[in-house]
Amino acid sequence: QVELVESGGGLVQAGGSLRLSCTASGRTFSDTSLAVGWFRQAPGKEREFVAAIDWTGGRPTTSESVKERFTISRNNPKNTVTLRMNDLKPEDTALYYCAAEQTAAWTVITTQGEYTYWGHGTQVTVSS
Asked: How many helices (H) and strands (E) does the chain have?
């Protein structure tokens, strides 16, 4: 069993930056092969893919809507996956979720249905 906790959300003005963190307990990022992804859900919209990374920290992948503004990385010894968000826009306002799934090495998962473990989310609000 893996429990995920997101942190780092908040209110920021357009053009600002935030850094979201995802930490795991139960089974940690350093002792098991967990691929990790970030998803977000805005009010009235479906949850969508934002970014993902394989368990080694390789193959970081971002959606087209956040490409070149958001970066995903991980530090397994520190049991943390980070989503750095720059040049935030009002349309980035959403509840951001971290998800994890045990996989083979070098597997990146961008489909939310393939993830077993989910956090409860952290709210990001971008004002114009």
From this structure: 0, 11
